[in-house]
Amino acid sequence: MLRIARARSVAVVLAAAAAAGCGKVQSIPAPVAPNASLFEGATGSWMKPQAKNADLLYVADLNRNAVFVFTYPAGDHVGTLRGFSKPHGECADAAGNVWVTNGTAQNLVEYAHGGTTRIATLADPNGFPAGCAVDPVTGNLAVMNFSLGSGAGSVVVYAGAKGAPQQLPLSTTAIPYRGVYDKKGNLWISGMTSDARFVVFSEYLAVRQRWRYIRLTKHVFALPSGLQWLGDELVVGDQGPIDSPSSVYEFSVRRGVGRLVGSTPLTNSCNMLEFVVIGKTIVTGNICEKAVRYFAFPGGGTSTRAIRSGLSQPIGVVLSRP
Predict the structure, then answer these.
(1) Among the four 41, 79, 183, 204, which has the fewest Cβ within 10 Å?
(2) Where are the alpha helices (H) located in 7-137, listed in sequence order?
(3) pLDDT for 198
(4) Rounded distance, CA 199 to CA 182, Å?
(5) Does the pLDDT value for residue 101 go beyond 70?
(6) Where are the beta strands (DSSP E) in 73-174?
(7) What is the mean pLDDT of residues 108-130?
(8) How far is CA 54 from the centre of its chain?
(9) Spatial distance between the Cα atoms of 322 and 245, rounded to a whole number of angstroms
(10) Regarding beta strands 291-296 and 305-307, do their DSSP bridges make them parallel or antiparallel, or are they unpaired?
C-alpha cells in the first residue's frame, strides 16, 4: 500500500477521475434520467470507410460526450461516435470490438471495429462505470464502478459480456478505478481506500473466486491510473499529483508480491487516466492540455507525437485492431 497526503479527500480523487475541470476539486455528477435523443442510437456519429481496415485509437472525451477515433500510428481523425453521457474508460476484445463506459447514463455500450452503430448495451445500476476489462479466456466483461453516493465503489462482471452483472465483493479496494485480466483469466484492479490515503492493488483469482491483496516492495504512486500486462510484467499507471506529469511503472508479480523492475517518466504528460502500450510506444490521454500523446517506452521523457483534433478532456484510450 502506498501512502499519499491525508489532506486529499475522495472528492479530489474523483475530480482527477471524472476530470470535469482540470485542477478543480469536483465530484462525479449525479445520475441523470436517460434522454432518448442522447442515449439511443448513435446520432451524429460518422466513420470514414477506410477505418475498418486500420489499427484504431478510440479516445473517450468526457467533456465532449464523444469518442474520437484516430488511425494508429498516423493519428488521422477518421471517425467520431456521439450520444454519450460522461464517457470514461474503454476496453477492446480479441475481435476488435470496443466497449465504452457511459458514466452518468450508467451503462456500457459496444461498437464493432470501425462501426458507428451500437451492437450491444449493458445496464450498470451499481454506480458510475469508470473502467472495464475483457477476459481473454472466457469473454467476460469486468467493470469498475465509482459510488455515486457516500458508499464504496464496486466491481461487477458480465458473463460472456451479456445479461445482468454479478457483483464481486470487495475487501481491500473501496474505490476501484481500472482493471485488466491476465492470460489465466485473473482480474487485477487498481484503486484507493475510501479516505484516499492509499493506493491499493488486488487480484481476483478466477479458480479460487476470491481477492488477493498485492503487496508492493516499493511505494511510488500518487493517484491510480490504468493497468496493462506485458508478458509476465504488470505495467501500472500513476496519474501523479493533480496537474503534474504522470508515470508508468513495471512490476514483476509473484505470489502476491510486486517488485518494481522499471519506470517510465512521461515528462510533458498531465493527468493520465488511461494508457496503452503498443510495442515501443505508450499512448496516453492528457487532460490538462487537451491532447493525446505518444511517448517512447520504456524510455519515456518528452513525447514524440501529439493528437489534438477536436479533443477537450481525453480520458479513455484503447487500441482496436481489425
Answers:
(1) 183
(2) 10-18, 36-39
(3) 56
(4) 20
(5) yes
(6) 77-82, 87-92, 98-102, 107-111, 118-123, 128-134, 141-146, 154-158, 166-168
(7) 95
(8) 22
(9) 33
(10) antiparallel
Would you list the DSSP string of 248-315?
A: EEEEEEETTEEEEEEEEEETT------EEEETTEEEEEETTTTEEEEEETTT-BS-SEEE-TT-SSEE
Residue 88's nearest CA partner among 64, 71, 69 is: 64
- Kindly list the structural domains of the chain, giving each domain's residue range(s) and its CATH number in brackets, ordered by start: 2-29+42-320 (2.120.10.30)
CA distance 315 to 88: 6
Grid cell of 132 as nine digits: 472495464
Q: What does the radius of gyration of the chain's CA atoms come to, in whole angstroms?
A: 18
Q: Is 212's pLDDT higher than 70?
A: yes
Residue 18: all three cell numbers together = 471524472
pTM (whole model) above 0.70: yes
**Residue that the C-alpha cell 467493470 belongs to:** 143
For residues 161 and 93, what is the distance between their CA atoms, to the nearest angstrom?
Answer: 10
Which residue type sits at 230?
L
